[in-house]
Every structure is written in structure tokens, then in C-alpha cells.
């Protein structure tokens, strides 16, 4: 796939990657889903991390534009390219999480509803719902709005909606591949 830029490309990439994550999770045994190592999360952990990042984005995109502007201000820069936003993110992570440090975003405190007996099924359903809400919320925005509004990113600071969506595609793809790798270990 080419790097997404337009609203239609972003929606298609997010949808395809989200569906690929769902298919990967569905194909994993419970043991493979929960397999972790001392230096890497399990597929379950990566999925929890993605849910914790996509749900707030979907919620923010569901805000009326005027409220988003009031809460987060107006961008002071043009939307960067996909390659530039990925490079910027990677540089910020290298600064914030030097080798050997622990990841503060590790989903160690993910809360399951009381009585949840099948965490894999619960997480798969929660992921599908979060992904659907993200795509529905994105559908309500005009192409030009993606450059006219911004959201705060925990590592990169204020980014335009377009940049946040490009980052989200990158982030989903990165952790989808992580899930595949860690679940395949013996």
C-alpha cells in the first residue's frame, strides 16, 4: 500500500489494517494470544494498547469542530507527510524511551468488566467497536478540516487531525506486526 494522505486513503488504510488485526486475533489460540516475554507484550497487551489509543481518538473525532477548536486550538503548522510524521514520532520515542527503559504506556491496568470470562473475545469485540467508531467519526469530517483542526498526541504534542490519522495507521500497522511476531514464538 502507498502511504495514506487523503481522507479516503486514510479511511481505507485504517479499515483494512483494523480488519487485519481482527483476523489475526481471531486466528490465535488463547495461549498464543496471551504469550508474552520479559521484554515484549503479548498480542493481548498490544491489542489493549491499541484499544486505549483508538477509543480516545474516535471520541475526539466525534466532537463538533467548534468544540474541538475550543478544546485544542488551531494548528500552527501544515500537515506533514506520512514519512515525516513517522520519523518525527520515532525520534520523539527515542528521546522519551531510551533503550532499556520501561514503556509507561504498557496496559498493565486495563480494566475488564466484572464477570468477563473470555478476555480474548471481550477484547476482540471492544477492538471491532472502537475501530468502527473511529471510521464513523472520520466520515463526518471534510477533507480540508483534517488540516484545520488539531489534537494533542502524548509524545508528539499538537498534531493536525490528518497527522493523527496517519500516525494511527502507522501505530496500528506496527503493533499488528508485533502481535503476529510475538504470537508465533514457541
Descriptive report:
The protein is mostly helical and about 190 residues long. It has 8 helices and 2 strands; from the N terminus they run αααααααββα. It has helices at about 5-25, 30-35, 45-60, 65-70, 80-95, 120-140, 145-150, 160-185, and strands at about 150-155, 155-160. A two-stranded antiparallel ribbon has the order 1-2. A hairpin with a 3-residue loop joins strand 1 (about 150-155) and strand 2 (about 155-160). Helix 1 packs antiparallel against helix 6, helix 3 runs parallel beside helix 6 and helix 5 crosses helix 8. The chain is globular. About 30% of the residues are buried. The model has no long low-confidence stretch (mean pLDDT about 90).
Reading the helices and strands in chain order gives HHHHHHHEEH
- With strands numbered from the N-terminus, the spatial order across the biggest sheet is 1-2
Number of domains: 1
Structural class: mainly alpha
Percentage of helical residues? 55-70%
CATH fold label: Four Helix Bundle (Hemerythrin (Met), subunit A)
CATH level 1 class label? Mainly Alpha
Provide the residue-averaged pLDDT.
Answer: 92
Number of helices: 8
- What's the name of the CATH homologous superfamily? dinb family like domain
CATH architecture: Up-down Bundle
Write down the Rg.
Answer: 17 Å
Largest sheet: 2 strands, antiparallel
Which key terms come to mind for this protein?
8 helices; 186 residues; two-stranded antiparallel ribbon; 2 strands; mainly alpha; Four Helix Bundle (Hemerythrin (Met), subunit A)
Amino acid at each position: 500500500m502507498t502511504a495514506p494522505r487523503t481522507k479516503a486513503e486514510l479511511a481505507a488504510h485504517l479499515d483494512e489494517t483494523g480488519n487485519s488485526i481482527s483476523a489475526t486475533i481471531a486466528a490465535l489460540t488463547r495461549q498464543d494470544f496471551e504469550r508474552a516475554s520479559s521484554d515484549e507484550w503479548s498480542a493481548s497487551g498490544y491489542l489493549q494498547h491499541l484499544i486505549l489509543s483508538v477509543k480516545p481518538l474516535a471520541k475526539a473525532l466525534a466532537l463538533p469542530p467548534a468544540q474541538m477548536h475550543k478544546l485544542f486550538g488551531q494548528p500552527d503548522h501544515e500537515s506533514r507527510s506520512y514519512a515525516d510524521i513517522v520519523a518525527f514520532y520515532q525520534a520523539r520515542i527515542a528521546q522519551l524511551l531510551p533503550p532499556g527503559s520501561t514503556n509507561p504506556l504498557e496496559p498493565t491496568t486495563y480494566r475488564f468488566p466484572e464477570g468477563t470470562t473470555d478476555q480474548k473475545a471481550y477484547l476482540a469485540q471492544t477492538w471491532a467497536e472502537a475501530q468502527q467508531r473511529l471510521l464513523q467519526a472520520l466520515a463526518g469530517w471534510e477533507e480540508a478540516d483534517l488540516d484545520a483542526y488539531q489534537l494533542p498526541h502524548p509524545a508528539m504534542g499538537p498534531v493536525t487531525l490528518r497527522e493523527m490519522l496517519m500516525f494511527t495507521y502507522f501505530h496500528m500497522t506496527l503493533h499488528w506486526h508485533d502481535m503476529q511476531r510475538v504470537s508465533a514464538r514457541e
